[in-house]
Amino acid sequence: MIEIKDLKASVEEKDILKGLNLNIGPGEVHAIMGPNGAGKSTLGNVLAGREGYEVTGGSATLNGKDILDLDPEERAREGLFLAFQYPVEIPGVSNLEFLKASVDAVREQQGKPALDSVQFLKLAREKCKAVNLDQSFLKRGVNEGFSGGEKKRNELMQMMLLEPSLCILDETDSGLDIDALQVVADGVNAMRDANRSFIVVTHYQRLLDYIVPDYVHVLANGRIVKSGGKELALELEEKGYGWLENGNENGAE
Amino acid sequence: MAAEFIAQQLELAKGISPLAWLESTNERGQQAFAEATLPTRKTEDWKYTSLYNLTEIGFANSAPHAQAHAPVVPGLQANRLVVANGELDTSASDAAALELVVRFRDARPEQQEAIRELLGNVKGERGHLFADLNDASINDGLFVLIEKNQRLEHPLHIVYANTAGDAPFTVNTRLLIALEQGSEATVIEHYAGDDTVDGKQNNFTNAVTEIRVGDNAKLVHYRLQLMAESAFHIGGTFIDLQRDSRYEGFHLGLGSALTRNDIIVNHNVGGSHCEMNGVYVPQNKQVIDFHTCVEHKVAHCTTDEVFRGIMNDKAKATFNGRIHIHPDAQKTLAELSNKNLLLTNTAEINTKPELEIYADDVQCAHGATVAQLEEKERFYLQSRGISAADAEVMLSFGFINELLNSLNDEALGLWLRPQLAKRFGRDDDLSAQLSGEL
Ligand SMILES: Nc1ncnc2c1ncn2[C@@H]1O[C@H](COP(=O)(O)OP(=O)(O)OP(=O)(O)O)[C@@H](O)[C@H]1O
Ligand SMILES: [Mg+2]
C-alpha cells in the first residue's frame, strides 16, 4: 500500500523528519504515537504535499507510485486522505459545494461516473447521519463555526465520501466526547477492508481499544524508534516515552 | 471635453418640462452645475476615477420608455415598481406598490410640502456636482413614506430599467424615503441592465436617493447596481439617522463601464446604528468607485461597515471609506473593514480608509487590505482532490459570498449568487440546485 523509505523533511530550514521508515500493507491499521513535536503531523503534511514542507531525502510510494512529486490534489485523487489535526475554517464556501467538488474530482480520477446533485445529496445526507452530524451542517461554510468535535466529524464524513485507499487520521480523537469517539471508531471500523489502510495518530491508548491496530509505532525525533503490536500502546501508557531510544528531545542521537 | 459635457448636460436640464413647485430646486441646481468644473485626476476624491469616457459621449434626454426590460427576481415576495428610462411605468408596476409611493408629478399640495421638507435637506451641501445636476434636472421622482409604527410586510422593489439602443441618453432619478417613528421597511433599489439584448446600452444614470430614518425606525436597504457593462452610473445616497434608528445597507457594484457611488450617513441625534456591507466585483475594463462617509455627529451611535471587492482582468476599483467622529460623539463604536482580492496583475485597487476622530472616549477600528488567498485554505481544498485553479475560484467566491450570506432575503440571495459566481467562470447550476434541494 504505502512504502516510506528514509524520509527526510524540513520546515523552515529545520529538520523535522530525519530518516523515517514505514511499510503499510493493504488492509492494515498502524497507530503512531509519540511525544509532542516529534513530527507526527509533519509526516501527514509531507505525505499530503503541503507547501513549505520540504522533502530533503527518501521516498514514499503509494500503490507503487512515487507520490512525492505529485500536487496535493493528485495525491488525493490517487487515494490518499489526511484528516487534519486542526481543520481550517473557510467562511463563505459552502460545505456542500466543497464536498461535491471534492467527490467529483476524486471519482473522475477513479473512472467512476459523476454523481448528479440528487444522488450526491442522498449520499451526503447518509454520511452526515453516519457521523452523527445534523444535515444543516451541509449548508454552512466549510467548518465555519463548527465546534472542535464537529470539525473532526466533518473530516470523517469527507473520508467516508471519498473512500480513499490510505487514510491518515491525525488525532481525530482529540477533543471528542465519549459518544463522538464511539461514532468515529465505528466509522473507521466500518471502512476497514482488505484494500484500505489506516495510519492513526493518537496520544491515547483508549482509542486503540475501539480501533484495534495491527501495529503500533513510536515516532520520536523524526524517526520511528520502536514498533510493536497493540500491546505496545499499553506499555507506553504505563512507562511514557523516556525509556525509548531517542524517546525524548534529549535522547541520544 | 469637460466644458462641453457640462454645457451638454445643462442644456438637457433646461430642456425638461419643470414642475412649478420644484423650480427653485431646478434653478439652484442649474446655477451650481453651471459653475462646476468637472473633476480631474488632481481633484481630491476623484484621484483614481476618470470621467473621460463619460464626457466622450453625446447624451440626449431620455426617450419614452416603451420597451424597457425590467428583470424579475424569481421568488422575491415584494411590492414591485418599474421605472423605465426615468419614468414610473405604472402598467409594469404592482398596484399595491403604487399605493406605497407618491410620484412627484402627481403630488397633492400637502404631499408637495412633505417632499420639499426632505428634498435636498438630507443631502445638504454634501453632494458633488452630479447631485447638483440631479437637482437641475428634477421634474419627477418617487417619495416613499412609511407612516408611524407601520411595518411594511414585503420589501418595496424598485427596478430602474433603461431601454437598449444606439442613441445614448441621460436619466436623472430621484428617490426619497422617509420612515416615521417606529416604522420598519425594506427597500430594494435595483438598477438593471437589459440582458435580453446584445449591443450597447450606453445610457447614463445619475441617481440621487435621500433617506431619513425616524426615531426608533429601521430601514433595510439594498442598492443593487447591475446595469449593462456599457452603461454609466453615478449614484449619491444620503442617509439621516434619527434617535435610536437603525440602517442596514447592502451595496452591490457589478454593472456599468463606470460607477461612482457616494454613500453618506449622518448619525444626527443619538443611539442610532448603521450596519453597511458592500461588494464590488468589476471585470474587463470596468471602473467602480465607492466613496462612503459616516458622520458621527453625536454621542452613543455605532457603525459597522464591511466592504469587499474582487477585481478581475483590467478592472479597477476605488474604495474610500471615511468615518468622521465629531467632538461631541463620545461613546462611539465604529468599525470599518475593506478587503480586496486582485485576480490578475493588470487589475487595480485603490483603498483608503480615513478615520478622523475628534472625541476621546470612542472605540474605532479600521482596516484595509489587499489580500492573498490563504495558503492553508487552498491546501485544505487541494488535499481533497480539488485542483489549485478550482480552489482559487471557490475561495475568491467565498470571500464575497460571506457577505451575500448576510442578506436577509433568501430569494434575493439565490438570484444574486449565480450572477456573482458567473464572474468567476463557475457553473453555478449546482449551488442553486443544491440549495434548492436542501
Ligand atoms: N509550519 C511550521 N512552521 C514552523 N515549525 C513547524 C511547522 N510545522 C511543524 N513545525 C515544527 O515541527 C516540529 C514537529 O511538529 P509536528 O506538528 O509534526 O509535531 P507532532 O508530532 O504532530 O506534535 P503534536 O503531538 O503536538 O501534534 C515541531 O517542533 C513544530 O514546531
Ligand atoms: Mg500533531
The helicity of chain A comes to: 25-40%
Percentage of residues in DSSP E strands of chain B: 35-45%
Class by helix and strand content of chain B? alpha/beta
Tell me the Rg of chain A in angstroms: 18 Å
Distance between the termini of chain B: 55 Å
Number of helices of chain B: 10
CATH topology of chain A: the name is: Rossmann fold
For CATH, the homologous superfamily of chain A is named as P-loop containing nucleotide triphosphate hydrolases
The count of strands of chain B amounts to 20
In oligomeric terms, what are we looking at?
Answer: heterodimer
- Secondary-structure element order of chain B, N to C: HHHEEEHEHHEEEEEEEEEEEEEEEEHHHH
> What is the residue-mean pLDDT of chain A, rounded to a whole number?
92
Shape type of chain A: globular
Please give the largest β-sheet of chain B. Answer: 10 strands, mixed
CATH architecture of chain A: 3-Layer(aba) Sandwich
SS-based class of chain A: alpha/beta
Q: Low-confidence parts of chain B, pLDDT < 50 over ≥5 residues?
A: none
Q: Number of DSSP strands of chain A?
A: 12
Outline of chain B: globular
How many separate domains make up the residues of chain B?
Answer: 2
Summarize it.
The complex is a heterodimer of chains A (253) and B (438). With 253 residues, chain A is an alpha/beta fold.
What key phrases describe this protein's structure?
heterodimer; A: 253 residues; alpha/beta; 6-stranded mixed sheet; 4-stranded antiparallel sheet; 34% helix; disordered C terminus; B: 438 residues; 10-stranded mixed sheet; 20 strands; 23% helix; 36% strand; binds adenosine-5'-triphosphate; binds magnesium ion; ABC_transporter-like_ATP-bd (chain A); ATP hydrolysis activity (chain A); ATP-binding (chain A); ATP binding (chain A)
Description:
The complex is a heterodimer of chains A (253) and B (438). Chain A is an alpha/beta fold. Chain A has one domain (2-246): Rossmann fold (3-Layer(aba) Sandwich). Chain A has eight helices and twelve strands. In chain A, β4 and β5 form a beta hairpin. The longest helix of chain A is centred in the middle third of the chain and has 15 residues, at 95-109. The model of chain A is unreliable at 247-253 (pLDDT under 50). Chain B starts with a helix and ends with a helix. Helices cover 23% and strands 36% of the residues of chain B. Chain B is globular. Chain B folds into two domains: 2-269, no CATH class; 374-438, no CATH class. Chains A and B meet through α2, β7, α3, α4 and β8 of A and α7, α8 and α10 of B. The complex binds adenosine-5'-triphosphate and magnesium ion (MG).
